[in-house]
Design brief:
single chain, five-stranded mixed β-sheet, three-stranded mixed β-sheet
Length: about 190
């Protein structure tokens, strides 16, 4: 009987601290592929760990200030490590969109992949115009001789449905990573 009041006291304290601005973690929604992209050049692809700018590797969500600076939201956190999460999201989307065998590095199969994709992101944030922006460069390297390596720049943006809302930012990030997968399939894997 003495443990129950202690439990209620701890529960009450945790509820109070949540109301006082403790950080909340926001997952990126799982999106179904909006389109399929036919890829004939490869059957399997290894995705290297995605490279993010330093501010985008933090747990805190990054936003652009009205003055053009970048700040992070101390009470709005991504649910997962951003590098890991973007790499896994991109792997899933590439697989779903193309129908290829896609795995993130390290390659888990005995055979080698037909190609390797390296994604280097230079900008990933919610900007002051309420858009989620993603830009950088992709590199596709065939593992067999005779294949054609490719390098392409990308600059993508999607609107954030509710300005300043963490769930809307997470949804926009999910959409833009899916858009990046379509870009890679169309411009790097065909």
């Amino acid at each position: 009987m003495t443990r129950f009041p202690l439990f209620l006291a701890v529960l009450g304290l945790s509820a109070c601290s949540a109301l006082q601005g403790d950080p909340l973690r926001y997952p990126v929604p799982d999106l179904q592929p909006a389109q399929k992209v036919r890829v004939g050049a490869y059957g399997s692809v290894e995705l290297r760990e995605v490279s993010l700018p330093e501010y985008a590797t933090l747990a805190e969500m990054a936003v652009e200030t009205p003055e053009g600076g970048i700040t992070t939201q101390k009470t709005q956190l991504w649910a997962d490590n951003p590098v890991r999460a973007v790499t896994l999201e991109l792997t899933r989307h590439l697989s779903q969109i193309t129908g290829l065998t896609v795995a993130s590095q390290p390659w888990p199969f005995e055979s080698t992949p037909d190609a390797r994709v390296d994604v280097r992101i230079e900008q990933m944030l919610a900007d002051r115009q309420n858009m989620f922006r993603l830009s950088g460069q992709i590199f596709v390297s065939p593992t067999e001789e005779g294949g054609r390596p490719r390098a392409r720049f990308f600059s993508l943006s999607v609107p954030i449905a509710a300005p300043g809302d963490a769930q809307a930012m997470a949804a926009a990030r999910g959409q833009i990573v899916q858009d990046l997968a379509v870009f890679i399939a169309r411009n790097g894997l065909r």
